[in-house]
TrEMBL record:
Self-association state and partner proteins as the record states: Homoheptamer.
One Pfam family from the record: MS_channel_1st
Stored InterPro entries: LSM_dom_sf (IPR010920), MS_channel_1st (IPR049142), MS_channel_C (IPR049278), MscS_archaea/bacteria_type (IPR045275), MscS_beta-dom_sf (IPR023408), MscS_channel_2nd (IPR006685), MscS_channel_C_sf (IPR011066), MscS_channel_TM-2 (IPR011014)
Domain spans labelled Mechanosensitive ion channel MscS: 106-170
Keyword DNA-binding: no
Name of the protein: Small-conductance mechanosensitive channel
């Protein structure tokens, strides 16, 4: 019993030290958890202070993981771990992981490039490759978009950056292209007058740049009249659809027609042709 008592007395300081370290570690974990909540809330409020919404998801991720990393280092230091050696070990391990996850790191690098150069922002409509949609989020690894038919697309950042990016909503105005086809027997000037009247009736079309009118093609079955006019980007599709709806009745009201595709066929009777050739000889 005396030996057991001596062992317990010897272990008591160690147990007390371990217990205190655990308590301090739990306290550090709790403080870190609270700090993460506060940091996340503060980052999410940056949008109200004028920070671009495109940057907020990435800033949130970096801030949260950075706070957890600091908390982990504090906990390890409480238990007496050599944090300097640990950082060096993590650095060496990071190189090995980097080679293994080079595609993932390429996504991260592309994400920082997209955030730095900002070829698009959250809420803008873009197209890269065959993907067309509205940007909802730009993260460290993927870009999330909603397509025009209501699908959510998650594309790796390196795939987005590796394509030509077309931004449909960055500029304040867009050019509308209208083709009006009339028959070869119709008067071209009358067709041009119809286009000018429709432009004059549409207040959403811009006066600068001025609308352009031209004969763009003498097609197989029609004469194609071309209108180029500018509208605000937000009004683009509404103006385009309304213009196309009014075009057909306006052409018909002036006696113009929209011809169907047609082709002339010249049939030569080979027997008669050879008989005529024989007579001529």
């Amino acid at each position: 019993m005396q030996a057991l008592k001596e062992q317990l007395e010897a272990l008591w300081p160690v147990a007390m030290n371990i217990g205190l370290n655990i308590l301090w570690a739990l306290l550090a974990f709790f403080v870190t958890w609270v700090a993460v909540k506060l940091v996340r809330r503060s980052v999410l409020k940056l949008g109200d202070r004028g920070v671009d919404e495109t940057l907020i998801p990435v800033l949130e991720t970096l801030a949260v993981w950075g706070t957890w990393a600091i908390g982990a280092m504090v906990v390890l230091d409480i238990f007496g771990a050599n944090t300097t050696s640990l950082v060096a070990l993590l650095g060496a391990a990071g190189l090995a992981i980097g080679f293994a996850l080079k595609d993932t790191l390429a996504c991260i690098a592309a994400g920082f490039v997209l955030l730095g150069l900002r070829p698009f922002r959250v809420g803008e409509t873009i197209q890269f490759g065959s993907t067309l949609g509205t940007v909802r989020k730009v993260g460290l690894f993927i870009t999330e978009m909603d397509t025009v038919d209501g699908l959510r697309v998650s594309a790796p950042n390196d795939k987005v950056w590796g394509e030509t990016i077309t931004n449909f909503t960055r500029n304040s105005s867009r050019r509308i292209e209208i083709i009006a086809s009339i028959a070869y027997g119709d008067d071209i000037e009358t067709g041009m007058k119809v286009l000018r009247n429709l432009v004059a009736e549409e207040p959403r079309l811009l006066e600068d740049p001025e609308p352009q009118y031209a004969v763009c093609a003498l097609a197989d079955s029609s004469v194609n009249l071309h209108l180029r006019a500018w509208a605000k980007t937000d009004d683009y599709w509404d103006v385009h659809w309304d213009f196309m709806k009014k075009l057909k009745p306006a052409l018909e009201a002036e006696g113009l027609s929209i011809p169907f595709p047609q082709r002339e066929l010249h049939i030569i009777n080979s027997v008669e042709a050879s008989h005529k050739e024989t007579k001529s000889q």
